[in-house]
Amino acid sequence: MNDPFTCGWPLDDGNTCRRRVSEAGQRCPTHRIADVGARAVTARAAQHQRRARPEPVAPPLADEDAAAMFAVLDSHQVAYVVIGGLAAAMWGSDLPRTSDADITPARNPTNLDRLAAALGDLDARLRIPGDPDGIPVPLDRRTFTQDVVCLITRHGPLDISFVPDGTTGYDSLAPTAVIRPIGNHPGVPIADLADIINSKTAAGRAKDLAQLPALRRLLTRLRPPT
Q1: Is the predicted pLDDT of residue 45 greater than 70, yes or no?
Q2: What does the DSSP assignment read for 152-181?
Q3: Which whole number is the average pLDDT over 6-21?
Q4: Residue 55 counted as domain residue
Protein backbone atom coordinates (compact mmCIF):
# COMPACT_ATOMS: atom_id res chain seq x y z
CA MET A 1 0.00 0.00 0.00
CA ASN A 2 1.35 3.44 -0.91
CA ASP A 3 2.21 5.86 1.86
CA PRO A 4 -0.36 8.63 2.40
CA PHE A 5 0.41 11.93 0.75
CA THR A 6 1.99 14.59 2.98
CA CYS A 7 2.41 18.35 2.61
CA GLY A 8 6.18 18.32 2.22
CA TRP A 9 6.65 22.05 2.82
CA PRO A 10 10.27 22.72 3.97
CA LEU A 11 10.51 23.73 7.64
CA ASP A 12 13.10 25.91 9.36
CA ASP A 13 14.62 22.92 11.18
CA GLY A 14 15.52 21.18 7.92
CA ASN A 15 12.60 18.75 8.00
CA THR A 16 9.43 18.88 5.94
CA CYS A 17 5.80 19.23 7.00
CA ARG A 18 4.29 15.77 7.53
CA ARG A 19 0.64 16.78 7.72
CA ARG A 20 -1.49 14.54 5.51
CA VAL A 21 -3.14 15.87 2.35
CA SER A 22 -5.48 14.21 -0.12
CA GLU A 23 -3.39 14.57 -3.29
CA ALA A 24 0.26 14.56 -4.34
CA GLY A 25 1.69 18.08 -4.50
CA GLN A 26 -1.06 19.52 -2.32
CA ARG A 27 -0.15 21.67 0.68
CA CYS A 28 -1.73 21.63 4.12
CA PRO A 29 -3.91 24.62 5.15
CA THR A 30 -1.03 26.20 7.11
CA HIS A 31 1.25 26.31 4.06
CA ARG A 32 -1.20 26.91 1.20
CA ILE A 33 -0.70 30.66 0.92
CA ALA A 34 3.08 30.36 1.31
CA ASP A 35 3.13 27.83 -1.54
CA VAL A 36 1.00 30.03 -3.80
CA GLY A 37 3.28 33.00 -3.14
CA ALA A 38 6.46 30.98 -3.72
CA ARG A 39 5.18 29.64 -7.04
CA ALA A 40 4.21 33.15 -8.15
CA VAL A 41 7.67 34.50 -7.35
CA THR A 42 9.32 31.65 -9.26
CA ALA A 43 7.07 32.17 -12.28
CA ARG A 44 7.83 35.89 -12.44
CA ALA A 45 11.55 35.30 -12.13
CA ALA A 46 11.44 32.94 -15.10
CA GLN A 47 9.51 35.46 -17.20
CA HIS A 48 11.70 38.49 -16.44
CA GLN A 49 15.30 38.06 -17.54
CA ARG A 50 16.21 41.69 -17.25
CA ARG A 51 16.32 43.65 -14.06
CA ALA A 52 12.89 44.60 -12.83
CA ARG A 53 11.98 48.27 -12.85
CA PRO A 54 11.01 49.93 -9.54
CA GLU A 55 7.32 49.63 -8.80
CA PRO A 56 5.35 52.85 -9.29
CA VAL A 57 4.09 54.52 -6.16
CA ALA A 58 0.51 53.44 -5.59
CA PRO A 59 -2.04 56.29 -5.48
CA PRO A 60 -3.94 56.98 -2.26
CA LEU A 61 -7.01 54.85 -1.73
CA ALA A 62 -10.09 56.91 -2.58
CA ASP A 63 -12.74 57.28 0.11
CA GLU A 64 -15.33 55.91 -2.30
CA ASP A 65 -13.31 52.72 -2.87
CA ALA A 66 -12.78 52.22 0.86
CA ALA A 67 -16.49 52.79 1.44
CA ALA A 68 -17.34 50.20 -1.22
CA MET A 69 -15.08 47.60 0.44
CA PHE A 70 -16.57 48.24 3.86
CA ALA A 71 -20.10 48.06 2.44
CA VAL A 72 -19.42 44.53 1.19
CA LEU A 73 -17.94 43.52 4.55
CA ASP A 74 -21.01 44.94 6.27
CA SER A 75 -23.39 43.14 3.91
CA HIS A 76 -21.85 39.87 5.13
CA GLN A 77 -22.00 41.00 8.78
CA VAL A 78 -18.22 40.80 9.20
CA ALA A 79 -16.99 42.04 12.57
CA TYR A 80 -13.93 44.23 11.98
CA VAL A 81 -12.13 47.40 13.01
CA VAL A 82 -10.34 49.73 10.57
CA ILE A 83 -6.73 50.33 11.64
CA GLY A 84 -3.53 51.93 10.36
CA GLY A 85 -3.15 54.93 8.09
CA LEU A 86 -6.72 54.96 6.86
CA ALA A 87 -8.06 55.02 10.41
CA ALA A 88 -5.66 57.86 11.25
CA ALA A 89 -6.93 59.81 8.24
CA MET A 90 -10.51 59.26 9.38
CA TRP A 91 -9.54 60.84 12.71
CA GLY A 92 -8.42 63.93 10.76
CA SER A 93 -4.70 63.28 10.43
CA ASP A 94 -2.92 65.40 7.83
CA LEU A 95 -0.33 62.68 7.15
CA PRO A 96 -0.04 61.42 3.54
CA ARG A 97 -2.97 59.18 2.67
CA THR A 98 -2.37 55.46 2.59
CA SER A 99 -2.79 53.42 -0.59
CA ASP A 100 -4.70 50.59 1.09
CA ALA A 101 -7.26 49.80 3.75
CA ASP A 102 -6.17 47.90 6.86
CA ILE A 103 -8.61 45.98 9.02
CA THR A 104 -8.53 43.71 12.05
CA PRO A 105 -11.40 41.20 11.93
CA ALA A 106 -12.64 38.99 14.72
CA ARG A 107 -11.03 35.58 14.38
CA ASN A 108 -13.85 33.27 15.47
CA PRO A 109 -14.90 30.63 12.89
CA THR A 110 -18.24 32.23 12.04
CA ASN A 111 -16.63 35.59 11.33
CA LEU A 112 -13.89 33.98 9.23
CA ASP A 113 -16.56 32.31 7.09
CA ARG A 114 -18.29 35.66 6.65
CA LEU A 115 -14.99 37.36 5.83
CA ALA A 116 -14.15 34.72 3.21
CA ALA A 117 -17.57 35.17 1.58
CA ALA A 118 -17.15 38.97 1.52
CA LEU A 119 -13.70 38.68 -0.03
CA GLY A 120 -15.15 36.42 -2.70
CA ASP A 121 -17.67 39.15 -3.57
CA LEU A 122 -14.78 41.62 -3.72
CA ASP A 123 -12.86 39.39 -6.18
CA ALA A 124 -9.99 39.36 -3.70
CA ARG A 125 -6.64 37.95 -4.82
CA LEU A 126 -3.34 37.55 -3.00
CA ARG A 127 -1.21 40.69 -3.42
CA ILE A 128 2.35 39.99 -4.56
CA PRO A 129 5.05 42.65 -5.17
CA GLY A 130 5.43 43.26 -8.90
CA ASP A 131 2.06 41.75 -9.79
CA PRO A 132 -0.65 44.45 -9.76
CA ASP A 133 -3.41 41.95 -10.56
CA GLY A 134 -2.56 39.55 -7.72
CA ILE A 135 -2.92 35.78 -7.90
CA PRO A 136 -5.89 33.56 -7.05
CA VAL A 137 -5.99 32.12 -3.55
CA PRO A 138 -8.54 29.82 -1.88
CA LEU A 139 -11.00 31.84 0.16
CA ASP A 140 -12.25 30.01 3.23
CA ARG A 141 -11.47 30.12 6.94
CA ARG A 142 -8.24 28.17 6.35
CA THR A 143 -6.95 31.10 4.29
CA PHE A 144 -6.48 33.04 7.52
CA THR A 145 -3.97 30.84 9.36
CA GLN A 146 -1.39 33.63 9.02
CA ASP A 147 -1.63 36.80 11.09
CA VAL A 148 -1.32 39.09 8.06
CA VAL A 149 -2.92 38.56 4.64
CA CYS A 150 -2.40 41.21 1.92
CA LEU A 151 -5.01 41.24 -0.83
CA ILE A 152 -6.02 43.21 -3.89
CA THR A 153 -9.75 43.67 -4.53
CA ARG A 154 -11.77 45.27 -7.29
CA HIS A 155 -11.91 48.38 -5.10
CA GLY A 156 -8.21 48.48 -4.20
CA PRO A 157 -5.72 46.92 -1.78
CA LEU A 158 -6.98 45.46 1.49
CA ASP A 159 -4.63 44.28 4.25
CA ILE A 160 -5.93 41.99 6.98
CA SER A 161 -3.98 42.05 10.24
CA PHE A 162 -5.39 39.81 12.95
CA VAL A 163 -2.97 40.88 15.69
CA PRO A 164 -1.59 44.38 15.03
CA ASP A 165 1.52 45.31 16.98
CA GLY A 166 0.74 46.44 20.50
CA THR A 167 -2.67 44.73 20.56
CA THR A 168 -4.14 41.30 21.14
CA GLY A 169 -6.39 41.65 18.10
CA TYR A 170 -10.03 42.51 17.53
CA ASP A 171 -11.10 41.94 21.13
CA SER A 172 -8.71 44.61 22.40
CA LEU A 173 -9.58 47.14 19.67
CA ALA A 174 -13.35 46.79 19.39
CA PRO A 175 -14.33 48.11 22.86
CA THR A 176 -12.74 51.53 22.20
CA ALA A 177 -13.50 51.74 18.46
CA VAL A 178 -15.67 54.60 17.25
CA ILE A 179 -17.96 54.90 14.23
CA ARG A 180 -16.86 57.36 11.56
CA PRO A 181 -18.24 57.97 8.04
CA ILE A 182 -16.13 57.60 4.92
CA GLY A 183 -17.16 58.39 1.36
CA ASN A 184 -20.84 57.52 1.03
CA HIS A 185 -20.69 55.01 3.88
CA PRO A 186 -22.55 56.30 6.93
CA GLY A 187 -20.08 54.88 9.41
CA VAL A 188 -17.52 52.13 9.99
CA PRO A 189 -15.72 51.12 13.21
CA ILE A 190 -12.22 52.61 13.40
CA ALA A 191 -9.58 52.04 16.05
CA ASP A 192 -9.24 54.64 18.78
CA LEU A 193 -6.51 57.15 17.96
CA ALA A 194 -4.63 56.23 21.13
CA ASP A 195 -4.66 52.58 20.02
CA ILE A 196 -3.30 53.58 16.61
CA ILE A 197 -0.47 55.47 18.29
CA ASN A 198 0.30 52.58 20.62
CA SER A 199 0.37 50.14 17.70
CA LYS A 200 2.73 52.27 15.62
CA THR A 201 4.97 52.71 18.67
CA ALA A 202 5.07 48.95 19.24
CA ALA A 203 5.77 48.26 15.55
CA GLY A 204 8.87 50.45 15.73
CA ARG A 205 9.29 50.76 11.96
CA ALA A 206 10.94 53.94 10.72
CA LYS A 207 7.86 55.09 8.80
CA ASP A 208 5.64 54.49 11.84
CA LEU A 209 7.95 56.30 14.24
CA ALA A 210 8.14 59.26 11.85
CA GLN A 211 4.33 59.62 12.02
CA LEU A 212 4.08 59.57 15.81
CA PRO A 213 4.71 63.29 16.51
CA ALA A 214 1.88 64.35 14.17
CA LEU A 215 -0.49 61.74 15.57
CA ARG A 216 0.29 62.73 19.16
CA ARG A 217 -0.34 66.39 18.35
CA LEU A 218 -3.66 65.39 16.81
CA LEU A 219 -4.57 63.40 19.92
CA THR A 220 -3.76 66.41 22.11
CA ARG A 221 -6.00 68.64 19.96
CA LEU A 222 -8.85 66.16 20.12
CA ARG A 223 -8.41 65.41 23.83
CA PRO A 224 -6.70 68.36 25.50
CA PRO A 225 -5.26 67.69 28.94
CA THR A 226 -7.62 68.63 31.75
Answers
A1: no
A2: EETTEEEEEESS-TTS-SHHHHGGG-EEEE
A3: 86
A4: no
Q: With contact defined as beta carbons under 8 Å apart, do 106 and 119 qualify?
A: no
pLDDT higher than threshold 60 for residue 1: no
Residues near 222 by beta carbon (within 8 Å), at least 6 away in sequence: 91, 92, 193
- The lowest-confidence range among 42-56, 165-179, 192-206 is 42-56
The answer to whether residue 57 is domain-embedded is no
User: Do the beta carbons of residue 103 and residue 80 sit within 8 Å?
Assistant: yes
User: What secondary structure letter does DSSP report for 77?
Assistant: T
CA distance 197 to 7: 40
Q: What are phi and psi of 126, to 5 degrees?
A: -70, 130
In a domain? residue 8 = yes
CATH number at residue 198: 3.30.460.40
Residue 12 CB-density burial (10 A; 0-12 exposed, 13-18 middle, 19+ buried): exposed
